[in-house]
Amino acid sequence: MECKFHSWLPSVPPFQSPPPPVQDLSSDDTPWAAHPLSGFGLVFQLSQRAGQLQFTQASESAQMVCGLSAQALLRSSTAFVGRIHAADQADFHASVQASALHGEPWNWEGRILTEGEIKWINIRAAVKRLDATQVQWNGIMINISHARRRESDLRDMAAHMERAREQERARLARDMHDELGQLLTALKMDISLLRRRLGPDDAQLNSMTQLVDAATAAGRRVAAQLRPAVLDLGLSDGLLWLAEEFSQRYGIPVSHQIEGAGELDDLTAIQIFRIAQEAFTNIARHAQAKSVRLTLARTPGLIALDIVDDGLGFTPATQTSEKSFGLRGMRERAHLLGGTLDCASVPNHGTTLRVRVPCTERGTPADAPTSGKPISA
């Protein structure tokens, strides 16, 4: 008996900003101060010479978007750069330099500090190299704070629903273990009493005993899939149990390197476990793999989970609806935690699943690293 879980989470995709401007703003004769696109955000022209940024054009919507007048921006770009959130400064400058170096459109999202509030903005701009030392961007800066808050609200709602589902799973697992277990135990005791009367070689009683044992094992297996008790010991132990159970059940060895995940909140630990659980289910059903490698690592602020198999692989563009549904469910779980899930696969060359989830530091890891030895069937 196999218990399959489908994701019923509200779809919370990663935030996607409005499309970039399609027109070449640098060749537009419309005055920049009253540019038609200024109704959507701050229309600007930004130059970089010898590493120094300077706004050379700015629409009057600057005050509305970033809390600075167009004149203030034109006097000094430092006024704007200084308002970028400290945690986003490095990413801002890296995105500028990458666009200048590769000549690719500039697309950056981050936070700025205005008077009394933090705003999320999105910058999209076309890049043009004017000479060997000067680069110019023409684009638009949009306030996306409302969309970010809406995304956060959706994620909070999805997290609440998922907690409720996990609580229901835990209740069902307890009921199955306690109530069904007691009934099957009582039934087996009754069979033992009958065996005293009918003799130990009664074929029907032996068959009934085997059925009760099978039902007991099935109940334990389903209860474990609903809510593995080992999860109470931490994510690392939960993943190790999952790998061992998979290897024993399907005869596929699993090599593993599971480092201490540390102290994680229940939602994060359970969602990462469910992603791994769905991944192993997909491998068993579709991959025809001979081996699997499972890696869990924690770095400051990040949990990384990699699951690699050497199976049949597939072409993502032609995957079946069943595989697509499973991947979508796993991605939704990762997005629920503010993370990402990437799946790379090539026919006859296996599949690699990479999950990256942000996490806050809560002391030293509570789970000791486990051995990297393969788990054999």
TrEMBL record:
Coiled coil: none annotated. InterPro entries: HATPase_C_sf (IPR036890), HATPase_dom (IPR003594), PAS-like_dom_sf (IPR035965), PAS_fold_3 (IPR013655), Sensor_HK_TwoCompSys (IPR050482), Sig_transdc_His_kin_sub3_dim/P (IPR011712). Keywords: Kinase, Transferase, Two-component regulatory system. Residues 267-361 form the Histidine kinase/HSP90-like ATPase domain. GO terms for cellular component: membrane. GO terms for molecular function: phosphorelay sensor kinase activity; protein dimerization activity. It comes from the Bacteria. This is Signal transduction histidine kinase, VsrA. It comes from Thiomonas arsenitoxydans (strain DSM 22701 / CIP 110005 / 3As).
